[in-house]
Specification:
By secondary structure, the chain is an alpha+beta fold. It has one domain: Histidine kinase-like ATPase, C-terminal domain (Heat Shock Protein 90, 2-Layer Sandwich). It is built from 4 helices and 6 strands, in the order E-H-H-E-E-H-H-E-E-E. The protein is globular, with a radius of gyration of 17 Å.
Length: about 160
Amino acid sequence: MHTLTRARPAVLWEHRTYPGDLAHLSRVRADLATDLAGFDPDLVETLQLLTSELFANGVKYTDSGHTGGEVIRALSMPDPATLRVSLSDCGGGGGTPRIPTQRSETEWDWAEGQRGLVLVQNLSTAWGHFRLAPWADLGTHVWAQVPVDPARVPPELRPYVFTR
């Protein structure tokens, strides 16, 4: 006789919206720590670093960094062993996130910017992006995911988490 065991359903946290200003980065990080209370502190710190890079890119390279622009943060566990953070900007950047590959080693050593996505790539198990509306510049959605030990997920976590 087989016993069915149910996997934890997907978990979704309520989205958070932030003004497109780097001055709000500390709030973005603090909210993430609040939302992930009970998770492994090292995992939370990794997610904070990933989120900081994605938020900064959304502000720097799009209209989100202009007056009235916003960045929306989504947080989810699509399965019991994966935590995903996603950020959507307001568009106006004219490009898509990419890791530059046309640099020599010396140029990389001297480069001031464009290292954030290298960090995202190295800290996550996967990352990606898509245009929110390919026919119009309505923004870009960038995501990164990290592994989670299902045994260390807070037991009181519900399928939908309201933020405070």
